[in-house]
Amino acid sequence: MRAIRVREFGPPEVMRLEEVPTPLPGPGQLLVRVRAAGVNPVDTYIRSGTYARKPALPYTPGSDAAGIVESVGGEAGGFSPGDRVYASATLSGSYAEFTLCEPSRVHPLPGAVSFAQGAALGVPYVTAWRALHQKARAVPGETVLVHGASGGVGVAAVQIARAAGLRVTGTAGTPEGIALALREGAHHALDHRDPSHLERAMAVTGGRGFDVVLEMLANVNLAGDLKVLATGGRVVVIGSRGRVEIDPRDAMARDGSILGMLQGNMTEADRAAIHAGLRAGLENGSLRPVVSRELPLASAAESHAAVMAPGAGGKIVLVP
Ligand code: NAP
User: Fold this and answer.
1) pLDDT tens, 155-206?
2) What DSSP assignment string belongs to 183-202?
3) Which domains does the chain have, with CATH numbers?
4) 277: Cβ below 6 Å to ligand 1?
């Protein structure tokens, strides 16, 4: 099969398309024919060699995929060849024609959801659901600021929050991103490149502040987020690419909380609850992943440059 291989950590160009043996599923494993693989920022951190978790070289990048079950090794969670599925983690990497998976990380893909959309679920939708429901414990009627609403996680967060009955404000860095946030369910959308955008966000809440902030770039925004919290508000730090100075009094004054999260820390029960919630949302149409670009596997380097560039517009996927 064809697969992207990384033989040394470094810039996007270290990803090369190679011919490698197709893996065989061992007992209790699934082999999935990949129809689309999700490209996530964390894939670029791992490839660059700067991430805390480093795979053994050489490796095939990618955790998210959607496709069709090709073969199963014995009892494999009730899946059968031909099933449409998405994977939220793989054993052999998703930037490939086939990927090996544990059944606990494979989930049925409803018929109305395309493979490209399915490849947007594993990291982005699970993260957004985890942040809003399991970390912030948002309830209907609350207000949420999705600080970075135009990317993979942000679009998911807007849809999940809107479906849950929250008042949603999103931010983006381009007019297209702002239009996307509004189209996907935000009641208001603002430009996070505008230095006064948090004042304008505060005005949207009538000066009360937000019950929840889902933060995609905490090293830039955390100090400001604390100032726009309502009493008892929660900031969930989803993304951060550096250090930041905050004034703890801003949290004290509002009984505010800063909640960190990393997907890898979830329990199996957390995961099962999230995928059940996602399935319901996919089936009733409230969750509709937005795919901005579909690139061939050979363009993996281009996809990594694109996912780190400003001007997000949903999810970037690779198509083998
Ligand atoms: P993405 O698709 O590349 O989107 C990045 C988002 O950040 C875009 O909406 C972008 O908006 C926005 N952004 C850029 N500058 C910003 C600013 N100054 N203030 C607020 N937002 C800004 O990435 P993603 O998949 O959504 O992931 C978002 C972040 O969460 C990444 O850092 C990722 O590593 C992290 N993450 C963490 C976890 C976890 O477990 N904690 C899981 C998934 C992702 P524009 O492009 O419109 O400017």
Assistant:
1) 999 999 999 999 999 999 999 999 999 999 999 999 999 999 999 999 999 9
2) HTT-SEEEETTSTTHHHHHH
3) 2-120+289-319 (3.90.180.10), 123-264 (3.40.50.720)
4) no
